[in-house]
Amino acid sequence: MKVLMIVSVIAVLLTGCVSNQLISLEEEGILTKHPIRIMDSTNIGKFTFRGQISKSDRESASFSDDLSENDSTSFSHFTFKIPKYQFNGEAEITIDDHVAFLGGLSLGKIGGQEYLETHLGAAFFSVYEKNSIRFDVGAKHQKLNYKLTYGTYVHHFMSNEELLEIVEVNSSSENVNLYLGFTVNRNNNEDFANFFLSYLLSYQTYFDHKGDASTSGFKLNGAMHTISLGLFKNIENFGRILIGARKMLMSFEFGYTAPFDLFLQYDFSL
């Protein structure tokens, strides 16, 4: 046993140890953008359908330069591509004066490739005479495509590291993450239009490359903070029209970016 240990130590000293380091990452997928959830009644058994079209001010977010200072990510370039236009739809049923269940999806296209995100959740709300408040909690399922480039290095004893090879991997990851939401809106029928304010916190797995027997994996997590505000108008025997603006803060371990978009939404109930 002692001889084997000595041989192993000598082998490591002579050959060095091998490690993988992420060099760059290119990823694309849709962002978590839920419809605005206006509450103006508590009719048990009511079905509400929401459809929203949004337009983003950008189609990608890029980070570069000296990201390698962060030991947990250790790479120098990251690009995340997002759709210019995105559809967000949702269906909801009210089961109690203060509780509803919902499900929805988001669709977007990037370079001819279609992307889909789905979500399920529950809502807890209170509707007052002229104001409403609502809390949402749920989970989303998302698929992202990515291309990562990493280098395999050997670290020699008493010498500098040596690059053995550059590897490119094209793959995808499917992840389930939680989200939390908060919405407040005005319900005054005497006004021409009413305002809303919404906040959404969405946890995000940007990619999770498992690796294989010869390579270690890489993982990048973050969060998305979204604030939306705007106006809505209830139209008798037609439904509800909403217009608004949305600011998103995509946070990573090494920085953040803040896409902005405008949206138009239509709701109707049965």
Could you please describe the fold and organization of this structure?
This protein has 270 residues and is mainly β. The protein has one domain (2-269): Lipocalin (Beta Barrel), CATH 2.40.128. Helices cover 5% and strands 66% of the residues. It contains one helix and 14 strands. It has one helix at residues 2-15; strands at 17-28, 47-56, 60-63, 77-81, 85-94, 99-110, 113-127, 131-155, 161-186, 194-209, 218-235, 239-251, 256-257, 260-269. The protein is elongated. The chain starts with a helix and ends with a strand.
In short:
By secondary structure, this protein is mainly β. 5% of the residues lie in helices and 66% in strands. It has a single domain, classed as Lipocalin, CATH 2.40.128.
Keywords:
single chain; 270 residues; ten-stranded antiparallel β-barrel; disordered N terminus
Mean pLDDT: 83
Number of domains: 1
Task: Characterize the overall form.
Answer: elongated
* CATH architecture call: Beta Barrel
* Share in β-strands: over 45%
Largest sheet: 10 strands, antiparallel, barrel
First and last CA, distance: 76 Å
Poorly predicted parts: 3-14, 66-73
Q: Any idea of the CATH topology?
A: Lipocalin
Structural class: mainly beta
CATH class: Mainly Beta
Q: What order do the SSEs take from the amino end to the carboxyl end, as H and E? A: HEEEEEEEEEEEEEE
**Quick one: how many beta strands?**
14
Helix content: under 10%
Question: Numbering strands along the chain, what is their spatial order in the largest sheet?
Answer: 2-5-6-7-8-9-10-11-12-14
